């Protein structure tokens, strides 16, 4: 039976025009003329029997039906493009995994271990984009996520299954030049040192000192960096003390470009999770990737 599906050219023209709210900008993006885009959208409207756009003083605007359809078409075209790129990348040998991951965890933990996945499953290609907050899987195009957060955040993330991978052991680190005799400090003494802040966790130092029952009036002071990797480099160059997950600075601690500034540790608040949609029918590539991540974590536990 013939499928009731418009042409991909019409859908691509509609999606671009809906995104830009302009036939002209859609035409520029698609290397078509404005009249060609207009004809494709008229053909689409005739095919579905619904008006998608209406003229305004400033150009065109989506109708309510067009607004809803544009979101659906955008997701579908994105998925089709991803599947096509996966096929091209794997040359038909396997499948792709679209992974959302917190950036420093992806860089410091996942990427150095991916060669073992490639050795075991050479047909699987992992595509990584950074995400630091929960999202709706069906709207994103992602197959899985490596997420850092609290148990409460994971519990309130709708439509997912989450597997605990490891706790986030956060430690204050600095250049050994900042510590006289490289002797670890007490939490009270540490409160007087310059503190390096991370913009995605603006209250991290305040919570740390609070857990230590230490008054630290300057806990929110200091330069802010978006990524842990930035704070790590700043700390290694003697700019202050950074509060970072231990697993992300193992190399620096081993080489002693960084040292632990205080050995006392508060209770663990956050952890790393492998998150997947709570739906049946994961692709073989996603299932194999999930299996590999869990085996890797278990093999590295003390």
CATH topology label of the largest domain: D-Maltodextrin-Binding Protein, domain 2
Query: Total helix count?
Result: 12
Element-by-element helix/strand order: HHHEEHEHEHEHEEHEHEHEHEEH
Q: What's the main sheet like?
A: 5 strands, mixed
Radius of gyration: 25 Å
The number of strands is 12
Which assembly state applies to the chains in this document? single chain
What order do the strands of the largest sheet run in, or round the barrel if closed?
4-3-5-12-6
**Shape verdict:** elongated
The end-to-end distance, rounded to whole angstroms, is: 58 Å
Would you state the CATH class of the largest domain? Alpha Beta
The figure for the number of domains is 3
> Low-confidence runs (pLDDT<50, min 5 residues)?
none
Q: In the CATH classification, which architecture of the largest domain applies? A: 3-Layer(aba) Sandwich
**Helical coverage, percent range:** 40-55%
Q: What do the pLDDT scores average to? A: 89
Which structural class matches the secondary elements? Answer: alpha/beta
β-strand percent reads 15-25%
Entry summary:
The chain is α/β, with parallel strands linked by helices and 302 residues long. Helices cover 44% and strands 20% of the residues.
Description:
Strand 3 (about 95-100), helix 5 and strand 4 (about 125-130) form a beta-alpha-beta unit. The longest helix is centred in the first third of the chain and has 27 residues, at about 65-90. The protein is elongated and about 80 Å long. The strands form three sheets. It has a five-stranded mixed beta sheet with strand order 4-3-5-12-6. The protein has a five-stranded mixed beta sheet with strand order 9-8-10-7-11, covered by helices on one side. It is built from twelve helices and twelve strands. It has three domains: about 10-85, Arc Repressor Mutant, subunit A, CATH 1.10.10.10; about 95-170 and about 270-300, Periplasmic binding protein-like II (D-Maltodextrin-Binding Protein, domain 2, 3-Layer(aba) Sandwich), CATH 3.40.190; about 170-260, D-Maltodextrin-Binding Protein, domain 2 (3-Layer(aba) Sandwich). About 45% of the residues lie in helices and about 20% in strands. The termini are far apart.
């Amino acid at each position: 039976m013939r499928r009731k599906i418009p042409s991909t050219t019409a859908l691509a023209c509609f999606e671009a025009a809906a995104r830009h709210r302009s036939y002209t900008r859609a035409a520029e993006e698609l290397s078509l003329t404005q009249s060609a885009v207009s004809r494709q959208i008229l053909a689409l409207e005739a095919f579905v029997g619904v008006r998608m756009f209406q003229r305004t003083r400033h150009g065109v605007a989506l109708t309510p039906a067009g607004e809803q359809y544009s979101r659906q078409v955008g997701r579908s075209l994105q998925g089709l493009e991803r599947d096509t790129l996966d096929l091209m990348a794997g040359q038909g040998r396997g499948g792709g995994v679209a992974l959302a991951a917190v950036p420093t965890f992806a860089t410091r933990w996942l990427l150095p271990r991916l060669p073992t996945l490639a050795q075991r499953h050479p047909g699987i290609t992992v595509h990584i984009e950074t995400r630091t907050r929960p999202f709706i899987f069906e709207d994103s195009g992602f197959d899985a996520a490596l997420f850092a957060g609290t148990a409460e955040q994971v519990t309130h993330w709708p439509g997912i299954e989450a597997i605990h991978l490891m706790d986030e052991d956060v430690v204050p680190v600095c250049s050994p030049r900042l510590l006289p005799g490289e002797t670890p400090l007490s939490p009270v003494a540490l409160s007087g040192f310059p503190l390096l802040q991370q913009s995605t966790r603006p209250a991290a130092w305040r919570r740390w000192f609070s857990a230590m029952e230490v008054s630290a009036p300057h806990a929110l002071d200091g330069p802010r960096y978006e990524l842990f990797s930035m704070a790590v480099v700043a700390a290694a160059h003697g700019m202050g003390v950074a509060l970072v997950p231990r697993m992300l600075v193992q190399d620096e601690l081993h080489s002693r470009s960084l040292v632990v500034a205080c050995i006392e540790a508060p209770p663990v608040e956050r952890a790393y999770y492998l998150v997947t949609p709570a739906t049946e029918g994961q692709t073989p590539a996603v299932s194999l990737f999930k299996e590999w991540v869990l085996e890797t974590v278990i093999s590295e536990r003390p």
